[in-house]
Amino acid sequence: MMTSPNSDLQLINYGSTSRYNDNDADVHPDRVWNLMLECSQELQSLPYITLDVFLPNNVMVIVKCSMRKTLSYVKTNALEQASKLPFPSLKTGDNYVFYGIGPSGDHEELYDESKTLKALNLYLPVLCMVEPEGNHAEKQISMKIGAAMGIMISELETHLTEELIICRLDLFFTCEELLCRRGVHGTEHYAFPEENHLLTKNRELVNKAMEAHMNSATPNNSKETKGFEVWYWTKEDERAFVERRKKGIGSTEDDEVCMCTKVTCLKADEASPSSLIDTALDQLSMEGKIGDEDPDQFILQVIGKRSFMTKEIALSSYEYIRKCFDNYRSPNVILRRRDIVCLDYKPPNPMTTTNWHRSMKRTYYFGPQNTPIEKNQRTKYLWDLEDYLRIRVHSASHILHEYDSIFVKVTLKIGTHEIEEVSTGMVSPSNPRWYEKWLQFNVYLKDLPPGVEVCFLLCGKRNRRSREITQIGYCILRLFDWKYRLLQGKTTLQLWPIITEIKNKDLFGRPIGQNYVGDSASIDIEFQEHSAVIQFPKIDNMQAYIDRMDQRDDDSNTSDLMSDFTSVSSNDSLLEELNDKLMQISEIKNVEDIKDEEVEFLWANLSRVASQYADCLVFLADSPLIWRNRERVSRLYIRLYNRAWNRLTDQAALQLLDRRYVDRSVRDFAVYCLDASLDTDQLLLYLMPLVQALKYEPNAGSRLAQVLLSRALENYRIGHTFFWLLKSELAQQTGESVFVKSPFYIRICILMESYCRANADHLDSMIKQVNMVATLTRLSETVKTIGQKEGSVRLRNQLMELRTDMEDMDSPLDPNDRLGKLVVEDAKVLGSAKLPFMLTWLNPEPLSRLFNPHHVIIFKNGDDLRQDMLALQVMRIMDALWKSSNYDFCLTLYEVLPMGKNIGMIQVVQNCSTLFQIHKSVTGGLNMDVTLFNTYIQKMNGSNYVKYVESIDRFTLSLVGYCVATYVIGITDRHQDNIMLTEDGRLFHIDFGHFLGHTKRKLGIKRDRAPFILTNHFLYVVTKGRTNPRDSYDFKKFRKLCIEAYMMLHGSARLFVTMFRLMICMGLTELQSPEQVKYISNSLRYNESPENAMAHFAQVFDETAKNDTATKLNWFSHTIKHTMF
């Protein structure tokens, strides 16, 4: 039967005539309505239904099925029937949605295909299948997102629970809100590549200003005498350049048509970009090179880099300017016309709303404010219950018969603190049933905090007479679900197997929830039923409760917050004593060291703590003394909710995101503080640990996820790094089908999908990068089978065919770098064990040939680069801390990006050589002469003594930075091929495959026995060739700088300890437990006074500088290995 129902009337008429046989030609509208109501009531009462389904190709099919069948079943059945008919073929089912007749007689879109027919409340047994408007564009975007993520959206949607559905919707709403307020025009565009610069707010981790460079051997004023070199080209030449770049045509014409003027009359700490533009144009005009130009039409671009300076701030605030002056170079910038540059940064297209989002939004939300729909369920608040917590263990299954008896330990805990433990009796594994009554806890239900967890530990005894107990498996649950509802009823728990015995404190950091990996032992348990949904009280309930408590306390003059120190405003001595004691408590380094009486003292002075000692929240939020008392929980929640708690420092806020802190309100407040505190550059420093902190979030739709998504959409640099960090996390589990069930895997997928959907205009760029990585991975697997020499030839041949897919794209390492033409003839396979590729691209930015002609990247397949990225990220934070005190140690912090499982890219620092290469090129042989590196630096500078001194200055400063950094982090495997020296004198370390003191051994002997690398070769350079360097002024200054650099890190030891604790869940081989983080605590002397820490490092330094025999032996063996064999 063929028909085309194009109107509501046709559907109504069809229903009335076919079902009720009303042959009256003049049907009254009321009659039609009554027929519809009768039909609807009849449908709801029938167990089965006969549906007329109209298909997009104007064909109608009939589907007979139970009312319990879903819309998905109806669609599959209808399309299956249609495929057998001789009519135009249809697309797959995911291209269509159903329309039905709603209560008002209008078309109603039915997007949720998981609903049963009975739940739909159909008014007529008629459905119309159509392809929604914009469906093709939606499908295209979804396919691109799937290609970028590595998992198709349709597959992702099959794994969504109600919590994950709400999370996905909330992230979508976050995107909608953010896209309405982010910058999309001109230089305020979210993707506009503004050069890194300082902000006037928050000085904690950035340079305060470009003041005197206090560490330099060269007079400060000599650094700015070089002035600024400003380049100019005509509008026609600039447009011609843009056109050539669009076509991928490289040219050296830019160098010839550009003209340059040198501006020396401006001071970097006083002049702004606009004043530099004005001065440069005036000079060019006076020189007769140009006519009149409007300065407002120009902006400054860094030569050789897609980076601009447009803010009305001091030029010294820009990182590029500071680096140039600190390295005795003139900054080079080119005048670009604002309107031409901004053509590359157009407003993005609106974000598409998918059928899924429309469907689920209609199911779970209503109104323009997206108010959640509350199900009509009987609800009680937790504080309405008058009972103690009870849990029952019924039975166990899949138990090995090697045990004579088994039992279950049930432990209630908050964070790392055990509240109470109760055990079942012993039963035989042949009949693992417990017939005993409920396990009773001495915990009143009213006093349960929302972050409380219960751990089930299944144990067995192999011999009844033996006291030895073997742990079989465990499962940790939160007593309150993601909606703050108390768990009730029976359930079966799949246990995580236990390989080695664990103590209760060792459960810290282990996965929450059931084992999703495979078959394992399981137990059947039951939580007490309460004949209603038990909800944790909301903030209004808490406020009302506190108001009642305060009224009672006013009447009885006994308050939980009363102490001998609360009324001290009129007594200066008591006030001083109070502040001294609070200061003493706030300076406690480890949360584990605080005593109960100190927690009580903090609580007794809560108002003062919240306003003046806000970081003490880390003590209160960890203490069971707070969480086991509902009045205290309520008071703390109210303060955090009303922001009546001063902002935390970044270190304290990061610490509250550790696994130790399980309360959502506390974690949300920490995220609020970080979001308000961190600017773009600072957030990039912390982005890696913050992504890892997502694993510790109790629920999917966390505040941390929303803030990270918002900041990623506000700034494309953050978003680019965020995308690849998430991509790397997914890749650690890709290939193992069981991990698709992982809750964290799905969370990351949802977060990544939200970012990609909101930044759909950049999807092509993302996919091009992803495809390039996939192509290089395939080539790498081929090369590994044929070796380095033949592999280099094969690589170049393959790249010649594939080059167009790897050109004219954003660099995965830095979106501010543009990869131009691939230089195929320079591609080669390196000789290290994993046979990495070294690839070279031309830099397409104007005048790059003069200053930065190439981008060189190493692609590596076979090593986990996440550890390298972590080590470099920690060094970046160290560098920021040093610069915040006006110490620039000339660190060379190249980019490393993990892009898959044991796959990634490394930025190649150009114009440098390894110490081993220098040894071979300068002297050769097995012994390394003490004058070697000083001779090399002299050779690089020729007869120019000033440049030689500048190079020595850079060498000394960089040696300070890397001596301290590698010591603190415990970097080992420091042979000559892992240390490099640039042509301008900067020393730097590479390859951080071993840290936290883990070292390689040969015949049981540690290869690295020195705390850090400091040999006579280096000291000879530092002292400019003195034969007895340790008695020189330069050495004493070098030693002083090392101690000062170390002490600055000691002052921020808490930050580094917190960072490494957050990274435990990353799964790195050398960072698996809190025990390994103790290396950082020890190296920074975290628990000791500054005086003791300084004395300790001074002793380490003196011992290392006094004897370099261990390092020389290690280097000698490396030379023999790579020279003789």
From TrEMBL:
Residues 246-337 form the PI3K-RBD domain. GO terms for cellular component: cytoplasm; phosphatidylinositol 3-kinase complex; plasma membrane. SMART domains: PI3K_p85B, PI3K_rbd, PI3Ka, PI3Kc. GO terms for biological process: cell migration; phosphatidylinositol 3-kinase/protein kinase B signal transduction; phosphatidylinositol-mediated signaling. Residues 823-1109 form the PI3K/PI4K catalytic domain. One of its GO terms (molecular function) is ATP binding. Residues 45-133 form the PI3K-ABD domain. Residues 568-758 form the PIK helical domain. Pfam families: PI3_PI4_kinase, PI3K_C2, PI3K_p85B, PI3K_rbd, PI3Ka. Residues 385-537 form the C2 PI3K-type domain. The keyword Transmembrane helix does not apply. InterPro entries: ARM-type_fold, C2_domain_sf, Kinase-like_dom_sf, PI3/4_kinase, PI3/4_kinase_cat_dom, PI3/4_kinase_cat_sf, PI3/4_kinase_CS, PI3K-type_C2_dom. Keywords: ATP-binding, Kinase, Nucleotide-binding, Transferase. Signal peptide: none annotated. PANTHER family: PHOSPHATIDYLINOSITOL 3-KINASE AGE-1 (PTHR10048:SF111), PHOSPHATIDYLINOSITOL KINASE (PTHR10048). Belongs to the PI3/PI4-kinase family. This is Phosphatidylinositol 3-kinase catalytic subunit type 3. It comes from Steinernema carpocapsae.
